[in-house]
Structure formats: structure tokens, C-alpha cells
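Let us work through a complete example step by step.
Step 1: write down the sequence.
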Amino acid sequence: MLRISNHYISKVVFSLLFLEVLILIGSFYAGAGLRIFDGDEFVLPKLDHFFMSACVFAAAIVFSMSALGMYQVKVSEGLRNPFFLQLMPSFAMGFCILTLVFYLAPDLYFGRGILILVFCISGTGIVLARMVFLKSSELSILESRIIFVGCGHLAKECGDLATRSGSYHKYHIAGYVPMPGEEISVPRDRVLALESGKSLVQLAQQNRVSEIVVSVQNRRGGTFPIKELLDCKLYGISVTDSSTFFERETFQIRVDSVQPSWLVFGGGFDQSWVRTFMKRSFDVAASLLLLVVSLPVMLVTALAIYIEDRAPIFYSQERVGKDGHVFRVMKFRSMFTNAEQGGKPQWAAKNDPRITRVGNIIRKLRIDELPQILNVLKGEMSFVGPRPERPYFVEQLTERVPYYNVRHSIKPGITGWAQVRYGYGDSVEDAVQKLQYDLYYVKNNSLLLDVLVLIDTFKVVMFRGGR
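Step 2: predict the structure and record it as C-alpha cells.
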């Protein structure tokens, strides 16, 4: 795994993305050269912004491929995965994006003939590149050999996570090293007993492992091999904490196994003025752009709500924001009036009978969230961040869920990491799962992660019916 702007990215995904960007830009030059071939030599068209046009073409196609989930290919499916069926819709979406760009910036337009050739060449190149990558993913040479220190329940969870199907990063578990007094929860034939006189370094070298994952819940006492783990690190073997392993593989922070010291001394939680300024600038720019683009949709939505269930059009509700401050969030009303006649707040369920017909549509498309743009412009919310909850539920969850208040260290968002990775929550268990994603965002938030959340939000709204 690579770590870019605090976010974990698979080396396979990054390499594939880098290669495909080169293919797209190279295809642009090749298509232009073939189109202007005069019989003796390739002559590129005389455009003032030729390289910029190539970059815009590559960006449009990569965005479209990301929005359709082409960088979330299940490696376990190998060549059986019909990725080429997603390529045509990606190119169609890219063509629409390019049409809009050329309308706004006509100097970047490079001609219909060149565009057809570029699409044909780049499509062929991407299919071939994907076939090579998916075929190479089946080779055992790409596997990472790891050892888990511990044999208990936590070690079993880590082992199950390492061997799950569909992951870009393939692991081969060399075994589990037991700790004194620990209950064995892993298969006994995978337990590696340390022979007398043999060190952990020698065991790791004997099994040719490149990483050791420390998966011991209780590290107190004199039995924890801290000196041997240090020796392993000095010999070039990566030593990883179970919390970091979970964070890296699931993009979550596990609240049931994380140590407070790991949160305190670990990286992340960037709240510097530079990050705050960049995020606020991004929020204002994105909100103003979305407000202009979505204004017709908002007007139609307001009319539809009024026709079905009359006024009020908007719904205002108290939510908990940064540092626990309460503010009123603005949304399009998606439920019947007096939906909580008993006076007691209720969880919003996936098929909630209180939702109107118009409300069901705007919830799936997340149109009901659009008035929150005003909250962002007022500085009460961010464009990307944890979902703001009601004070009644926050009070309950703070008492029952560890570290729940950590999510209030940054502004809540219209969309967020938990919202694109997890569905609607209507229980404490769901709240825990969403919190684990929220903690990952709070710890690792960056401009890159914000952009990835926005791409996933677009994908959820347009192609998966919303969550």
C-alpha cells in the first residue's frame, strides 16, 4: 500500500491509474498524428493548447472510469470480470464531459476526426493494459508473506481480513506466533511455535516474511516481545500494529480494538491553519458551483413537494456540529408533516413509511441534501465530513460508543466517507460502523480524500440509486 496525503492507495491501483493516464495522453498524440499524416511524416495539429487538450481528455476519461467503479475491480475474478463492458459507458460519459468543456473553452477543441481515432486507440490500449494487470495479479510473486504475533480473537480477525477475496493486495499467511496465556482462536496447524534458542527474527527469515502484524489485545506484563520486534524492524522486516492493519485494509478505525496511545501518538488529525484554509476555500468554491448547477433541480423539487403535500417545502432540524455546537440544518422536506407525532426522535430507516413519494425520489438522488449548501456557505458545515446527527442521538451514542465525540472535532458534511461506504443506519450497531469510517476521515482528511469522496458520491447518486 502507498500512503498519499494520509490516504492508503493500493500500489496496483496507483500503477494501473498511472499507466492508463500515459496511455490516454499517448493515444491523444497518436490519434492526432494519424489524422494529420501527410504520406511522409506525422504532423501534429497546430493547436495553441495541444498538451492541455490531451490532459483534459485524460482527466475526463479517468474521472468517468472512476465514477463507474473501474478502479474497484475484484482481482479475484481475474479476466472473468467484464471490465470492457464498463469501458463503453465510461467513454460515453467522458464524451459528454468533453463536449461541455469544449463549449466552455473552444480553444481546447481538437476536431471530430481526431477524437474518434483517440477513442479507438485509447480503448484498445486500456483493454490490453487491464488484461496484463489482471493476469499478473494471479502470480504468487506479488503476494506479501506475513506473520501474526498472537493467536487470539484479534489475530483471527486480522487473518480473515488478510485472506478476504477481491483485495488488490494479496497476502500469504506464514503463520501465527502464540503469546503465553492467550487462548488459541486460529487454526492450530497455522501456529508457529518458537523453538528453544530461536528468535523471532530467525523465524521470520526462515518463513521469508516481509511483514509482522502485532495482533495481541493485552500487551502488559513481561511476555510481550518488544525487543524481538525491534530486532525484526532493524533487520528490514516491517512491523505493523493491528489497528494500522485494519485502517489500511478496511479504510476504517476499529473502535473496539484501538489503543488510546495509538490515536495520540499516531499520524494524522491534521487541523493546521493551512488545511483549514484549503478546506474552507474548497467548500466555498464547490458550494457556489453546485448552487448554480443545481438551481433548476431545486426549483422543480420545491414545486413537486408543494404539489404532493403542500407547505412547508423546507425542513429545519437541530444537528450537532463542530465542537458540539448545535445548529439548524436545512433540507428539502421528504417526510409527511408531523412525522414524529409522539415527540420522540426516531432513526431514519431505509424504507421508512413516513417518507412521501417525492421524498423517496429525492432521498435516493440526495436532492434533499442540496439546501445544506446554505449551511456550508454560513460556515456551519463542510462539503465533505461526518454526517451531522441530532442532539438526542448524539447524547445516546456518546455514552455507548467509544470515541464518538472525536467526529465532532471537524465540521460535519453534506456528504462523507461513511455515507459513500456504508448505507443508512437505523441502530447503534450501524452507528458504530459509520463511526469507524468517520474516524478514518477525521484522522486522514485531506484534499485528495475530499475529491475521492465526491467521485464516490457521484457514483452512488447516478449509478447505485443512492444510500
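Step 3: interpret the result. The two ends are 28 Å apart (CA to CA).
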